[in-house]
Amino acid sequence: MSAIIKQIEMGKTNAYLIKSEKGYILVDAGMPGESDKIEKVLVENNISLKDIQLIIITHVHYDHVGSLSVLKDKTGAAVLVHEKEKEFLEKGKTDFPEGTVFISKLISKLSNLISESKFKAVNPDITIKDNYDLKQYGVNGEIIHTPGHTRGSISVIINGEDIICGDTLFNFMPHSVYPPFANDKKQLIKSWKKIEKYNCKRFYPGHGSIFTKEKFIKTLAKKAKKLDA
Question: Which domain holds residue 118?
């Protein structure tokens, strides 16, 4: 049940397609109005919308669920989210996450003052608490709970080597994968240490390009040392 992962770049954010023996799984759904970008990739790869059997949401922020309602209607796929994100998905609204550095802290405060992160509400079909096996979808993989960026952030491990990590890790900086936003920085590092134990080789972030284990380990060592100091 080896699976293949395809990155869908949508400017600021990424979504991912997982190809399995039984069809496809979509991870995240981009910003509002971006469903056409995902549909274009499907057409280019001769994939029908109805081939999507599951949509996994790594966390409920508007840039990851903005086009979810449209895609759910068109694909008929089940939507999976962590139980701690469920209420936000059903409300169609969430706060901007807290910043982890000076600039992002300012951005977070200003964003929450002047605007609301709204999107079309969706009722999830599957809510999870801890690990979730993807075997029933023809995938050698599992979903794990990786809180920190948000309380209900999740990551998807495929073939024991690849991890789709949402915003638990960013790849915008040359020497770091630390996210500019996270509601709980200590919990984030705990999740990183949890991820480290899986010994994945390739990391697929919600923002930025795919990167290797080496960059992750170097960033983890630096951030863990600062927290322990």
Answer: 4-228
